[in-house]
Design a protein that fits this description.
- Helix content is about 40%, strand content about 25%.
- It is α/β, with parallel strands linked by helices.
- A 5-stranded mixed sheet has the order 2-1-3-4-5.
- It starts with a strand and ends in an 8-residue tail after the last helix.
């Protein structure tokens, strides 16, 4: 089985690999460069989901058995800004599994910069002096590495796989 991840980010690729091998130990997981089709900083859950769907669709079109799109974004809840992440796993027969999570409140100064047009990854990289998107993520920084981006993404990928590993519960499989 060949799984194409719509990203070349090593954190995302490894998270997909870690999740998929729990059910498909012989799978091959490969990252491919694709565009999300949304803003560099998705500003709503709807936009974040759309980015994940686009990544999964394009990845699958490149020849995998599954295409996987992971997209991080932000969403406003009760006047506060939260990080969110969504994953779409698309099978060769066009069925999508969707999983989301990684909600945590962003610090007010970070939220202010995002509202002014900034992106979370570069904002955090500027403060931390390293590329958090390709390492522990904002969640790693803010939890003092008690939770990192890859571990959080593994959980979300697993939740997107539910439809495929428990087919008996879903009518579209």
């Amino acid at each position: 089985m060949r799984v194409l991840v719509g990203s070349t980010n090593p954190v995302k690729i490894e998270a997909v690999r870690e999740a998929f091998i729990k059910y498909y130990p012989e799978c091959e997981v490969v990252g491919v460069e694709v565009e999300s089709g949304v803003a560099g900083q998705p500003m709503s859950e709807e936009e974040t989901i759309r980015g994940a769907k686009n990544r999964a669709r394009v990845a699958l079109e490149l020849g995998g058995d599954y295409g996987v799109g992971l997209e991080g974004g932000v969403t406003e809840i009760d006047g506060k800004m939260f990080e969110c992440a969504w994953v779409v796993v698309r099978s060769g027969d066009g069925v999508d599994g969707l999983g989301g999570g990684l909600y945590f409140e962003l610090p007010p100064k970070v939220a202010e910069e995002i509202r002014a047009g900034g992106e979370l990854g570069p904002i955090m990289a500027k403060v931390m002096k390293y590329d958090v998107k390709r390492t522990n993520g904002a969640i790693g920084v803010l939890t003092k590495d008690r939770l990192d981006r890859k571990s959080a993404y593994v959980q979300i990928v697993l939740s997107a796989l539910v439809k495929f590993v428990s087919e008996e519960w879903y009518g579209d499989r």
